[in-house]
Design a protein that fits this description.
about 230 residues; alpha/beta; TIM Barrel; binds flavin mononucleotide
């Protein structure tokens, strides 16, 4: 990645739960060095692991281990959810542990309950997992409460963002960066050019939203958020 994208912000990504299954600072460092990452992202995905037959279920004491990584690694550590949202209490604990940023990755887009349900073969198991489809904190709520819990931390918004206008709304609610997974999957399966066109369109929508909100730059959008979030 680094050889073709020398100055792009690049994050390594590992499951935080792996810290309870043998992962140490050395392995995290290896993942960082492997791609010349600017930061390490640790994802918290308890629902996904709980619904997996082969899931790792021991999430005990992770906050202390995340704190150790924050101290020992040479790059910033960012923590994220994967579609259920970071709670206010978790955000507070993460801030004290020393994380550099949080991606709230809230409810509203990709649902790993649905993903795991579709991996089950027996209909009754599919039903059991599908009951959790709506589990989580919506992205907008998670953004507001995480910002309240850790006002000094940069925030990334992901989870159900469809386009550049959603990015503008998320920035208005306190996000510094926005992330899209599901919204780019279809274009990504077609190839590089469709992804480029899609993201150029998102950037255009963001500029139009800023223009209409009277915000000449991202900092001003933070200060003049859209008043109604839909
Ligand atoms: C196909 C797919 C793979 C993903 N893999 C990871 C992963 O390896 N690590 C991670 O932190 N999040 C992963 N995610 C979660 C996303 O980063 C994001 O937090 C979540 O999908 C919510 O955003 P969305 O609604 O835009 O999809 C994945 C999402 C999708 C759709």
């Amino acid at each position: 990645m680094r050889s073709v994208a020398p100055d792009v912000l690049l994050f390594a990504n590992l499951g935080a739960v792996q810290l309870n299954y043998g992962m140490r600072t050395e392995q995290a460092l290896e993942a960082i060095e492997m791609i010349g990452a600017d930061a390490l992202v640790l994802h918290l995905n308890p629902l996904q692991e709980a619904l997996q037959q082969e899931g790792d279920h021991n999430f005990k004491g992770l906050i202390e281990k995340i704190g150790v990584l924050c101290k020992e690694l040479p790059v910033p550590v960012i923590v994220k959810e994967v579609g259920c949202g970071i709670s206010e209490r978790t955000a507070r604990l993460l801030a004290v542990a020393g994380v550099a940023a949080i991606d709230v990755a809230g409810l509203g887009g990709t649902s790993f309950a649905r993903v795991e349900a579709f991996r089950r073969e027996r209909p009754e198991e599919v039903e059991l997992a599908l009951a959790f489809s709506e589990w989580g904190i919506p992205t907008s709520e998670a953004l507001v409460s995480t910002h309240r819990a850790a006002p000094q931390l940069p925030l990334i918004a992901s989870g159900g963002l469809h386009h550049g206008l959603d990015a503008a709304k998320a920035i208005g609610l306190g996000a510094d960066l926005t992330g899209f997974a599901h919204a780019v999957l279809a274009a990504a399966s077609e190839g590089e050019e469709p992804v480029r066109r899609l993201l150029d369109g998102f950037a255009w929508q963001l500029r139009v939203a800023m223009f209409c909100a009277g915000a000449p730059n991202i900092a001003a959008l933070h200060a003049n958020p859209p008043t109604e979030i839909k």
